[in-house]
Design brief:
Length: 137
């Protein structure tokens, strides 16, 4: 991985996590990288944000209050289709470390599935790569 900071200037991120500290850390991290970030604490809040904010990447906790990240991603994909938008790349964050959960997450539509605690450099690198890949599509 590169030691140099990767510029994510003008990248729009939606971070969804029930933990306020995680939201704050990820928001600060990506703002320092030049991204525009909106954070949500739950699925319903994230869906409301999606109506007016068109993020380039979704970073989503799996264990959310009231509704899990799998269900949220399905609703976001449906919303993208209704609004005739390109499918948003999504990264799952979770404490569920069993392989079956990772496989389920990838089958549910997440492009990547990261375990907590999160390696922040790896996450920034992954976001950068997802943007490069999605810009070719």
């Amino acid at each position: 991985m590169p030691k140099k900071s990767i510029s994510l200037k003008e990248l729009r991120l939606l971070v969804v996590d029930h933990d306020p500290d995680t939201r704050k850390i990820l928001t600060t991290l990506f703002k320092l990288e030049g991204a525009e970030v909106i954070a949500a604490a739950c699925a319903s809040e994230a869906l409301e944000v999606m109506l007016n904010y068109k993020p380039d990447i979704l970073i989503c906790d799996i264990c959310l209050p009231g509704e899990d990240g799998y269900s949220l991603l399905e609703k976001i994909r449906t919303l993208n289709k209704q609004q005739i938008q390109q499918e948003i790349p999504a990264i799952a964050l979770t404490a569920f470390v069993h392989e079956q959960y990772r496989i389920y997450g990838l089958l549910a539509g997440f492009q990547s599935y990261l375990y907590k605690p999160i390696d922040l450099k790896k996450l920034v690198f992954l976001v950068s790569n997802l943007i490069k890949v999605s810009s070719y599509n």
